[in-house]
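no rush on this but wanted to send it before i forget. theres a chain ive been looking at and ive put its sequence and its fold in token form underneath. i want to understand how the tokens follow from the sequence so walk me through it. thanks a lot i owe you, the record is right below:
>
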Amino acid sequence: MFRRRADREFRDAQLAGQALLEMHATWAAPDFVSPAADPTPTRQDGKGVEEVPDFLPPDLRVPSRHEVEGLMMRWEQPLVIDGEVRECPQCGAYRDWIVFSMRDDTIWLRCRAGHNTAEPRLDPAWYNRNSGPVDRFHPTLDDGLRHLGH
């Protein structure tokens, strides 16, 4: 009796995986313009200006209707910075942080008790190395904290 349900679930998972593979096989990658094909802009004095292409193609950029004030992620394990375990200066908590990367390139930490403190030893590059992809946008800070379990 239980075997039939397990077999059906396995078959359904296989069919879903096959459909996903077929979708990717027919998906056409966007046509990216190579930076070498673009004409090089020049300054008024006639010297060329090196223009750095955007990292992401336009299809993957954040739409302008989302005004991102900052990014946040959950950091459950102890946060070790320069060989030292970071503790909350108000309550002494050393794990289960929410890490914020703000627009002004500052990193803020929030402990489970709700104390916020700046962390000058971290930078957005550290945040980008340790965070995953942005999975959703939240209209308020409270919505974001609720989503992360705080």
